[in-house]
Write a structure and sequence with these properties.
4 helices; 88% helix; mainly alpha
Length: 152
């Protein structure tokens, strides 16, 4: 009887501890969400200022040279939005969505390729980025196929 009572008390303590940990996880996730929203708003402001300066200060015809920088800034915001989506998905379901993490990684690698200066980077680095894209794409395909089989 005493052993049963100890198990019940121990289980109650474990449940209380896990409840405290879950509350801390939720608090951290909410704090990260707020910070991510601030980062996104600052990034959008930075993008707006950059575009305004480029349109009105650079001589006509030079905007194409900074277009890659603009694409990089846009993709930075998309990456931040994907990270925010990951955090909010965790808050809703308390599960990390691997598919979102892979999509965010694909966007990050695509951003790196878009802003890549081919004159300053070696062939091995380009091969590495290609391998990263291939691995992430295969991972994404596997997850999508497994998710569609689970749903169907």
């Amino acid at each position: 009887m005493k052993k049963l009572m100890r198990r019940i008390i121990g289980a109650t303590k474990d449940e209380s501890f896990m409840h405290i940990i879950e509350n801390i996880e939720v608090l951290v996730s909410k704090t990260l969400s707020i910070f991510m929203v601030i980062v996104i708003l600052v990034a959008i402001t930075d993008l707006g200022i950059f575009i305004f300066k480029e349109l009105f200060t650079i001589p006509y015809g030079k905007f194409n040279t900074t277009l890659y920088k603009v694409f990089g800034l846009f993709l930075n915001i998309l990456i931040a939005l994907e990270i925010l989506e990951n955090i909010t998905a965790y808050l809703r379901r308390h599960v990390f969505q691997v598919e979102l993490v892979i999509v965010t990684s694909l966007i990050a690698v695509a951003r790196k390729i878009i802003i890549l200066d081919l004159e300053k980077i070696g062939g091995l680095d380009i091969i590495g980025l290609g391998v990263a894209i291939l691995a992430l794409s295969i991972s994404y395909l596997i997850i999508r196929l497994s998710n569609s089989k689970d749903a169907g």
